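For the sake of clarity, the format in which proteins appear in this thesis is described at this point. The record quoted next illustrates the convention:

___
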Amino acid sequence: MSPSTPCADRLARRADLTNGLVSGLVAGTASGVLLARLEMLPTLALLVGSHSALAGGLVHLLVAAGLGAMFASYLGSATHLHDLVTAGVLYGVIWWLIIPVLLVPAWLSQNVNTVVVHFAVMSMAGQAIFGPINGAVVYGLRRVRGGSTRA
């Protein structure tokens, strides 16, 4: 293994960040389709003071891009497909606990009621889609860009 240089490290971090943004958008699009079919996007739009499914979709994609970037940045050393997909599943579960279970109700200043519980339970399916797709896309992008990966 050759010693890394500050420039090489910076380029690797930038590549991980870019891979994460792209993977987050791809995985966010896939999970967003499910959220749209479940008519959950207007609930997300409430976070920005709207009732529009389009606004909810944009909020969802923005969050997905950020989550994808963090995933790829913090898991930059994982090189096996199964490691990234497994990490993606766990990452999705963790963010499901944080975003729809804790943050969305707090942001909307709602007590745990039927609507919020329904939203949290239904959004679990979206995170179940987001996490593994995010991990698989990060793996695929690394392979395409010539990064170190293993199946």
User: Anything to note?
Assistant: Residues 6-37 form the longest helix (32 residues). The chain has a mean pLDDT of 84. Residues 85 and 135 are 5 Å apart (CA to CA). DSSP finds five helices and no strands in the chain.
